[in-house]
Design brief:
By secondary structure, this protein is an alpha/beta fold. It contains five helices and ten strands; from the N terminus they run βαβαβαββαββββαβ.
Length: 228
């Protein structure tokens, strides 16, 4: 196989079972998970997903708690591990990114064309409010998630922008499988009220500004069940 999912996670017990389960259903032979100091039931949920069916090889490495520079080292190590196992490309998935199994399968089934460096899937954000209700954002976004296992990572988390982002002619956008009958490959699941620490992360402040400029509204939804 040419590509492997890599997940760098911490305290993702709420969604990680569904995330791993749907990646496994997509047919990837390996899934590489790097835990950076979870203190909840994240790893138990990963183990539960791994034992649900005769799934592929789910490899878990416990890196322990990391600072910003350490998270960059973890990202580098996960790429190196993938390359050493013969994977030319990695499929980056976060612990709160829930793909339809068919949405992930389209990544596995379609190699990156010659000359392309970054692969994008299509996501929509679904946010969890304090009262437990779920809200879906009005617009969709492209998620940069497929890149070479040789890509260098530098700078402290959330990482410096890679050179590949300066070359839009090298971008490749995966089509959404028509069988899904939805316009996205999956969902970004997170809290409506984020941690106060988010204010310290410039990239997230920029994301907030981008959303504000789009005059975005929220619509109340229920959790999507029975993902294909």
């Amino acid at each position: 196989m040419w590509i492997v999912p890599v997940l760098m996670i911490k305290n993702e017990e709420k969604y990680i079972y569904m995330v791993v389960h749907n990646l496994a259903k997509a047919g990837f032979p390996d899934i590489f998970i790097g835990d950076t100091g979870s203190t909840d039931d994240t790893l138990s949920e990963v183990a539960r997903a791994a034992s649900a069916e005769p799934w592929p090889n789910i490899i878990i490495v416990n890196y322990g708690p990391q600072d910003g520079a350490g998270l960059t080292d973890v990202r580098r190590d996960m790429c190196k591990f993938s390359k050493n196992r013969g994977y030319e490309w990695v499929f980056q998935v976060d612990g709160d990114e829930l793909y339809y199994s068919l949405g992930a399968q389209v990544v596995l089934a379609r190699r990156m064309p010659a000359g392309k460096k970054l692969g994008f899937t299509k996501f929509v954000s679904v946010e969890l409010a304090e009262d437990g209700s779920l809200w879906v954002m009005d617009d969709w976004f492209s998620r940069a998630c497929v890149y070479s296992s040789s890509m260098g990572w530098h700078g402290d988390y959330p990482f410096d922008v890679q050179d590949a982002f300066d070359e839009p002619n090298t971008f490749y956008y995966y089509d959404v499988p028509p069988e899904l009958d939805v316009p996205v490959h999956g969902f970004h699941l997170h809290r409506l009220q984020r941690s106060g620490k988010d204010a310290d992360v410039m990239a997230r402040n920029g994301k907030r500004l981008q959303y504000a400029m789009q005059n975005q509204e929220h619509k109340r939804v229920t959790m999507i069940g029975g993902l294909k």
